[in-house]
Amino acid sequence: MALRYGKMLIHHHLYKSLRFVPQLVVKRSTTSDFCNQMSGKREYVGYGVNGSPVYADLPEYPMPAIRFREGGDEFCALREKERGDWNKLTLDEIKKLYRGSFCQTFAEMQAPTGEWKLAAGISCWAMAIAILMTVLEQLLEPLPESFEEDKRQAQLKRMIALEMNPITGLASKWDYEVEDWKFRNNIGILTHLTTIIETISQYLTYRQIFMMQ
Question: Which of 12, 106, 153, 178 is 20 to 30 Å from 25 by CA-CA measure?
Answer without folding.
Answer: 12
